[in-house]
Amino acid sequence: MDIKIGFIGGGNMAQAMIGGLVTTGMPTDMILVADPNASQRELVSHRYDVQTLADNAELAASVDVLVLAVKPQVMAQVTRELRNVVQKNRPLVVSIAAGIEISSMQSWLGDDIAIVRAMPNSPCLIRHGITALHANPAASNAQRGQAQKILEAVGAVIWVQQEDLMDAVTAVSGSGPAYFFLFMEAMEHSARVLGLPMEVAWALALHTGAGATRMALESGQDLAQLRKNVTSPGGTTAAALEIFEKAGLREIVDNALTGARDRGREIAREFGQE
After folding, report:
1. Among 21, 75, 192, 250, which is least packed, fewest CB within 10 Å?
2. Is pLDDT of 148 > 70?
C-alpha cells in the first residue's frame, strides 16, 4: 500500500497491527504512532523502527489513514481535539474501540469524514485473529480496501453491512476468545481431578482445542456434522455430551452472548455521542 498510516495509541492491538504490516512489507517510514506516554513511544519506536510523536494532531495532519487505537472512555475527547485537522486533511478514520458507533464518531469529527468501524479480537495479537468491519457511506471502495488490507495483517477480515450487528460481533468474536479459554481451563481442571498431571492436563486441553478448531476450518463440514462424526452411540463422547445438554449448555451460551451484546450497547450509550 502506497499510503501513510498513523496510529493514535501505541498499545497491544496497535502494535500487533504495526508488526503485521511491517511483516507483510509495509515500509516503516510509512507508519507513525502517537502516544502520550514517553516510555510507550520509546518502546514502539525501538521495537518496530517507526516514527513516534506525542502530538495527535501533528500525526493526523500527515497521514492517509488514521487508526484510533484508544479506549472507548477517551474516544470523545481524542476525536474532538482532532476535528479541525481531520476536516482539513480528510484521512480515512479507522476506529478499533468497542461499542463506539459511527454516528458518534461523525458527531465528533464531521458527518462527511470517511470512517470504518473495526472489531478485532485478541488472537490478532499473534496474527491469527478475525476482524469485522463496517464503513459509513463516505468511505470509498478504495478506502474500504485500505482498511481491509490493514486488518488482514493480523488475521481474517469480514464485512458487516448493518452496523447494529457490530455489538453481536463483539459478543461472538471480540469476547469469544475468553469463552474458549474458560472451557479449556475447565477441561484442564477436570483432567487434574481425574488424576492426570498438570502438564499433561494442560497439553491435552489446549491441543484438543487447537486441533478441533483446525478440523472445523479445513474440513468444509458444518459443526453439527463434525460433532456427530466423533460421537459414537452409547460411547464416552455421547455420555459427556448428554450431560452438557441436560445442564443447558446451549441456553447458557445464548444468555452469555446476549449479555455481552447488551453490554456493548450500554458502552455505546455511556461513551458515545454527547
Report:
1. 250
2. yes
3-class DSSP state of 98? coil
Distance CA 38, CA 253 (A): 42
Distance between CA atoms of residues 8 and 59, nearest Å: 8
User: By three-state DSSP, how is residue 26 classified?
Assistant: coil
Mean pLDDT over 265-272 rounds to: 86
Instruction: Tally helices (H) and strands (E) across the chain.
Output: 12, 8
Q: What are the distances in angstroms from CA 232 to CA 48, 138, 174, 204, 244?
A: 51, 54, 34, 21, 16
Fold of 174-266: ProC C-terminal domain-like fold (1.10.3730)
Domain spans of the chain?
5-164, 174-266
Instruction: Dig out the grid coordinates for 22 from the structure.
Output: 511491517
Q: Give me the count of residues in the chain.
A: 274
Collapsing DSSP states into helix, strand and coil, what is residue 92?
Answer: strand
Residue 116's DSSP bridge partners are 94, 135
% of the chain beyond a pLDDT of 70: 99
Say if residues 57 and 34 touch (Cβ distance below 8 Å).
Answer: no
Rounded CA gap, 268 and 31, in Å? 29
The Cα 228–Cα 36 span in angstroms is 53
Q: Which three cell numbers stand for residue 227?
A: 460433532
For 206, phi then psi, to 5°, come to: -70, -45
Asked if 256 and 262 count as a contact pair (C-beta separation under 8 A), the reply is no
Percent pLDDT > 90 in the chain is 93
5-8 and 129-135 beta bridge pairing: unpaired
